[in-house]
Design goal:
Blueprint: H1 7-15, H2 17-35, H3 70-73, E1 80-81, E2 97-98, E3 104-116, E4 131-145, E5 149-162, E6 170-182, E7 186-197, E8 243-255, E9 260-273, E10 281-293, E11 298-311, E12 318-331, E13 335-349, E14 355-371, E15 374-385, E16 394-407, E17 411-424, E18 435-449, E19 453-467, E20 477-492, E21 496-497
Antiparallel strand pairs: 1-2, 3-4, 3-20, 3-21, 4-5, 5-6, 6-7, 7-8, 8-9, 9-10, 10-11, 11-12, 12-13, 13-14, 14-15, 15-16, 16-17, 17-18, 18-19, 19-20
């Protein structure tokens, strides 16, 4: 396997471990502390709405089945944990997740072939026709539970071979770490999500297991998703070449009363590109929010969030301050709806060194709906972003949608789509483009083969549109479409029970 490496790649690889290994060390340190806590602590009486302590299930019970219909044929609410994350935190809402019965780990491997007609960002294919990328890698998922804490790992990584003479063979990595603690009044989460991919993360994998770290299916522990606006985005197809992305989040919630709580947190994210012409970025985020539970299913809140965007070789960082009001309706295993909006204050410096301030609106919506043998999710966000690798800050509008439906006990269908627009901030000094639009849409079918193997076949179209300024001629407004066929095969062992 031949992997193209240059000075830029080496520089990027050296810069990543400072953040990535710090996050891993923090999670490992927290894990050690959790392991030292007694197995049978003195009984405590939780607050009326406090999260109850989670006790590991007794040995002898089986781990969740890989058959997606097993859980639905039984009691639908049995062994299902509600989502208790604060609504004003740095995580997106969920409908909850399955209460796993053991601590365990599962290794596996996957093979994926992506067949496409051209590279992302290229108006014509370098080979003059269709070409293929062949991904071969390992998957790994781990769940370690204690009385009041949980540690999860999802990892996928390996290499790929390409038949396109204009590309180099390479490798890919995806990792998600999560450490959570739950006490009587306190709740703490530490998250880290890392990826190194040969192309944009936006729509990568066409909805198959290639686009997610770890083991797919019920055995893959759910990693709480990080709010997209607090990490550098890589949703611009025009930013070509291998791309690194890492986001580290820590937040703490304190229960002030049976209905009210306060959340404080922060995150650090970085985005790196190995090819010249792209813009590397860092983002620092501080977050403070208040949560209030109106009813068992409805909550409101308000948060203040400050984000600082820094760019390589640029002395013009962007500061963003947001105050958003939040409403959320959450029914375990059925629906999670979150709506937010409020003023957005942006501070930046133009090319002449003059400080600029603008006031606009920010907001978003997030919906996750689960029904028997299927689910639907949709999300929209509007606000400031890092610029997608081609702008030093941007106004971003992003919409994503996905749906899945089981057919029988072995087959399932899935569909997914997304739209992202990165528009240059006014007076930001952008001279090449007014905006970049990235669109993807597709769907596929998958079949479970026994309990350990899954086969998927999908199609996806990705469209890039850009409007250039200070330019004349047909090339100033260009677009292209990439068509891809994705074949994915995943296999894993039976779970190895730890406790």
């Amino acid at each position: 396997m031949r992997i193209g490496v240059n000075r830029v790649t080496t520089k990027m690889i050296v810069s990543i471990p400072k953040t990535f290994f710090a996050a891993v060390a923090l999670c490992c340190f927290a894990t050690i502390l959790s392991a030292q806590e007694p197995d049978a602590p003195p009984p405590q009486v939780p607050a009326p709405d406090a999260t109850p302590a989670k006790t590991p299930k007794p040995a002898g019970r089986g781990v969740p089945s890989l058959d997606p219909n097993d859980a639905q044929d039984q009691n639908p609410d049995k062994d299902w944990r509600p989502d208790t994350m604060p609504i004003t935190g740095l995580q997106s809402p969920t409908v909850g997740n399955q209460d796993l019965r053991h601590s365990y780990f599962v290794p596996g491997f996957q093979y994926t072939s992506t067949i496409q007609n051209q590279q992302l960002g290229a108006t014509t294919p370098s080979t003059g026709g269709w070409y293929a990328n062949h991904f071969l890698g390992a998957n790994f998922s781990l769940v370690q539970q204690w009385v009041r804490s949980e540690f999860t790992v999802n990892y996928s990584g390996g290499g790929f071979l390409t038949s396109d003479s204009g590309q180099n063979n390479g490798w890919y990595q995806q990792l998600a770490l999560s450490q959570s603690f739950n006490w009587r009044r306190w709740q703490m989460q530490i998250l880290d999500q890392f990826s190194y991919l040969p192309e944009s993360q936006f729509g990568f994998g066409a909805g198959t297991g290639l686009g997610l770290p770890g083991i797919s299916g019920p055995l893959g522990p759910t990693t709480p998703p990080i709010v997209g606006s607090v990490s550098p985005n890589q949703n611009n197809f025009a930013a070509i070449g291998p791309q690194y992305n890492n986001s580290t989040v820590a937040q703490l919630t304190y229960q002030l009363s049976p209905r009210g709580s306060i959340t404080v947190g922060g995150s650090y994210g970085l985005s790196r590109y190995t090819q010249a012409g792209n813009i590397n970025s860092n983002i620092y985020v501080g977050n403070l929010g208040y949560n209030y539970q109106l009813t068992k299913e409805d909550s409101i809140g308000v948060f203040y969030r400050f984000s600082a965007y820094h760019f390589d070789n640029s002395s013009r960082p962007v500061g963003d301050q947001v105050i958003n009001f939040v409403y959320e309706r959450r029914i375990t295993r059925k629906i999670a709806l979150q709506l937010e909006g409020g003023p957005d204050i942006v501070n930046r410096t133009d090319l002449l060194g003059v400080k600029q301030r603008s006031v606009s609106a920010s907001g978003g919506a997030n919906l996750r709906y689960s029904f028997r043998r299927g689910d639907v999710s949709a999300a929209y966000s509007h606000g400031v972003s890092s610029g997608g690798g081609l702008l030093t800050g941007a106004t971003m509008d992003q919409v994503t949608f996905s749906a899945s439906k089981s057919i029988g006990r072995a087959w399932s269908l899935q569909a997914n789509s997304g739209f992202a627009r990165n528009s240059a901030l006014s007076n930001s000094g952008a001279t090449l483009a007014t905006n970049f639009n990235s669109i993807f849409a597709g769907g596929g079918i998958s079949r479970a083969i026994g309990r350990d193997t899954n086969f998927s076949l999908a199609y996806q179209a990705r469209i890039q549109q850009q409007n250039l300024t200070n330019c004349s001629g047909p090339s100033c407004s260009s677009s292209y479409t990439q068509s891809s066929i994705v074949i994915n095969l995943q296999w894993h062992t039976r779970p190895f029970v730890l406790r």
